[in-house]
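note to self — DONT lose this again. spent like an hour looking for the file last time. sequence + predicted structure for the chain T wanted, 109 res
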Amino acid sequence: MLHRVIGSADAMRDQLERLAEMGSRPNITIQLMPFMAGAHPAMKGPFSLLRFPETLDMDAVYLENERGAIWLERPADVEHYTTVFRAMRKQALSPEETRDRVVNLAKSL
């Protein structure tokens, strides 16, 4: 999605620069899935994995689609999406490679 210009080139460049800046923070990790990675475990659609301290026992997965959204809270569902997330991180660019890619894309606009 980073290659699809929506709005002006200036707006896109500003957004990419902000993304690179935010990715430099110690509490934020940004990793891109390169096209060359081919098929990956999350191709079926986006999801949000919410993990909480062990004492809360409230982990959940949030899925959105065109017709609404769903929360999954069963431990087996949370574990499945945790496995998917870990597999994606292994296939994705490292945070440093991602930042370099984002900065270079911003410069090209």
